[in-house]
């Protein structure tokens, strides 16, 4: 199975359009220790021909242009992108669907909850329903992804709920402190090749690590995990926002309840941060925080990163 990181940054990208934080300035100036990153998404394939996107970022057009594996090959209208799997309805994960507009056959997989969000917004009909099917994912039920023609992809995906929050733009303050969030709002994907032993977990958003979730991850070959913030109050500290990570549905990398600590002893062979916010110092190749995550055995995803398992 092949994985290509299309984008490693959190919502807004790195640098975010209106961000004048020193991290963003370094990225904008072309500093080699601060390479720009587009918004989070990966492409997955078992044969190197048919590719499935895990989330569709607002930067998808740029990501396609920058990754030859996603270029059209045959005829006048063609795409190696055969489907999209969504982990939530966040802006940074669904707006790329609009880039896939018009009459290209695709399958879009998401929970019924997330599909209902797409159904409620008629702009998503730019994905011509005559060509694009919407496939409900049921929690904890493995499904082999299929091409639009019904060909088995060889990629088996098991969706499972993770602690999180309804998309920011769907928050309903009248519904209490969790803003009306339900189980199907945030999922992670456990991914296996039908032939082969490798499995990886894709989890770009996770609010906390309860013991049951940690057990589930134990022994995984590879995890792509939520690297949004270094510390919970980072956006407040840095003067760029008023929300904590917890409020946004993201656990932090550092600290006693953080990712380094809670995923340390789970026997996960390879651990990679993705969905990284502009303020997170692990973006910078020369920061002490980058060094700390590397010493702890983690990698920091970058656009164009290739992983095979
Ligand atoms: C998130 O991951 O919390 C969201 O992408 C935030 C946002 O939409 O700005
Ligand atoms: Mn996000």
Q: Can you tag this structure with a few keywords?
A:
binds manganese (II) ion; single chain; 309 residues; 9 helices; alpha/beta; 14 strands; Metallo-beta-lactamase, Chain A; binds D-malate; 24% strand; seven-stranded mixed β-sheet
What does it look like?
There is one protein chain. The chain has one domain (2-303): Metallo-beta-lactamase, Chain A (4-Layer Sandwich), CATH 3.60.15. The relative contact order is 0.16. 17% of the residues lie in helices and 24% in strands. It is built from nine helices and 14 strands. With 309 residues, the chain is of the alpha/beta class. Manganese (II) ion binds next to loops.
Largest sheet: 7 strands, mixed
Corresponding CATH architecture: 4-Layer Sandwich
Strand-residue proportion: 15-25%
Order of helices and strands: EHEEHEHEHEEEEEHEHHHEHEE
Strand order of the largest sheet: 6-5-4-3-2-1-14
> In angstroms, what separates the terminal alpha carbons?
5 Å
CATH superfamily: Ribonuclease Z/Hydroxyacylglutathione hydrolase-like
Summarize the structure.
By secondary structure, the protein is of the alpha/beta class.
Topology of helices and strands:
Elements lengths: L1 E6 L14 H7 L12 E5 L5 E4 L5 H7 L14 E5 L5 H4 L11 E6 H8 L12 E6 L5 E4 L5 E10 L25 E7 L5 E5 L7 H7 L4 E5 L7 H4 L7 H4 L10 H4 L7 E5 L13 H8 L2 E3 L5 E3 L1
Parallel strand pairs: 3-4, 4-5, 5-6, 10-11, 11-12, 12-13
Antiparallel strand pairs: 1-2, 1-14, 2-3, 7-8, 8-9, 9-10
Bound molecules: D-malate and manganese (II) ion (MN).
